Amino acid sequence: MGVDAEINRQFGQPNAGAAAYVRRSTANVRQGTVAAKLSDLAAMCGANHVSFDSQVLDVGLVNSSSSPLPETLMGLAELCGRLKRRVGLIACDHTASFWFVSGLARVRRFHYVYLDAHLDLGWHNDHDHSTTQSPHNGSFVSQLVQGSLVDSVTNIGARSAATYDPCYAHAPFNIVRWPDASTNSLDTSLRHLVDQVIYLSIDMDVLDPSAAPNVSCPEAFGPSAIDLFRVVVWLATHCTIVATDLCELVPEERLLWPAQIGTYVLLAALNAHTG
Ligand SMILES: [Mn+2]
Q: How far is ligand 1, taken at its centre, from the CA of residue 85, in Å?
């Protein structure tokens, strides 16, 4: 499902309409062929034993005219959790992740894993008293942690200058920087997640800007598309993914491939299985 309005952006270029952009840009990703394509991508990552379901239901765009968007997202996530439906959300600012997680957390426990060049904690901003503010895209993870909404938090891909601020040296969660996720070290760097139930959030700025130039807060020196795919397939086959979201792409009609990368990664996260 998609949501096309921003919720609370404090950082980066506005990206209202991101979900419709992704849909327009991926009209060629048909259900009948996507499983074969995903299998080939997995084989490129050395995951020959992984196959994919092709059952995907596009629920459509969330229209929140009658109630505020955060409450709508919480309600939908809670409903999907009760129905035991694996759900993927394509949204605008990363704040959507906070509200989707908040709804799902009413139903079940899980670990929060987010692929993001930034930590979205806001601790390095002295003026940012995020515990008393409503969640925004630069600090919502802080509220996830403080509210004990999830069992643990793991960032993969942190690399912005602010992520090296000393204030994060003792952050109360796991930070897996790209060198530790880039080669064959996933079994080591992510071993705490093996066999766990996880929620996977994908901030598209985790990708190198050459792979996704149209993100709200681009950061140089990131992973390639196939690097990202490998990490997601690892998570989908070593963990149980209950829900995912994909955020921060900026609509840009001349750039179709970043939306395609995002869609294939999201489908892989939701549909991968072994054996
Ligand atoms: Mn983010």
A: 25
The pLDDT tens digits of the residues spanning 97-145 come to 999 999 999 999 999 999 999 999 999 986 555 556 789 999 999 999 9
Rounded distance from Cα 250 to ligand 1 centre (Å): 13
Phi-psi region of 221 (alpha: psi -120 to 50; beta: other; left: phi over 0): left
Question: What's this model's pTM, rounded to 2 decimal places?
Answer: 0.95
The sign of the torsion formed by the CA atoms of 16, 18, 19, 25 equals positive
**How far is CA 258 from its chain centroid?**
14
**In the block, which residue shows the tokens 């601020």?**
165
Q: Where are any strands of DSSP class E within the chain?
A: 50-52, 87-90, 111-115, 153-156, 174-176, 197-203, 240-247, 272-274
Ligand 1 centroid to 95 CA: how many Å? Answer: 8
Distance 36 CA to ligand 1 centre (A): 30
Question: Using the 8-state DSSP alphabet, how is residue 206 labeled?
Answer: G
What is d(CA 65, CA 195) in angstroms, rounded to the nearest whole number? 39
Enumerate the H helices of 94-139 as residue ranges.
Answer: 95-104
> Cα separation of 121 and 187, whole Å?
26
Q: How far is the CA of 275 from the centre of ligand 1 (A)?
A: 33
